Amino acid sequence: MSVWLGKKLADIIEKPPDVKINPNGVDLKISEIWSLSEDSVITINGKDRRIEPDKVKIEPREDDFYYLPKGTYEIRVANKISIPKNAVGFLFPRSTFNRLGIMKSETALWDSGYSGWGTQTVRVTVKEARIHKDEFWFQFVVIDMKEEVDHVYDGHWQGEGMKK
Fold this sequence. Notes:
Elements: H1 6-9, E1 20-22, E2 25-28, E3 30-36, E4 41-45, E5 48-52, E6 56-58, E7 65-77, E8 81-82, E9 87-93, H2 95-99, E10 102-104, E11 115-116, E12 119-132, E13 138-144
Antiparallel strand pairs: 1-2, 2-13, 3-6, 3-7, 4-5, 7-12, 8-11, 9-13, 10-12
């Protein structure tokens, strides 16, 4: 197995917006932020997947910053990503976010054949995070597999897109 070069990885990411190419991955911007209530109840039962109360969409303010008080957020990446049959993807926080008190949940595998605008859960651990809407949030990494898979991801989140 080997990590893709950032410039190769950029080819499987739909643009706009542009990505920031790094030696071993690409940095991605976000398109949506949804706040999860600390009092939420989550149900996962086969195809029944829900959270009550519903998530609340957070918009940037007039100064183009997201103001995120301490809490938990679902963050959607801004680029559609399609994982080839011979690879698997991982989405990591940029180190700046870790160093400044924003913790991301561990990534789930982005399986071979997944295509969509994935999400990650982040936790703001300080009183408030102020992040510009054009900031890069995550670094995406793809690793080659020894062989191509014989069937691709066709799960619940295939083709997921922007929330309405």
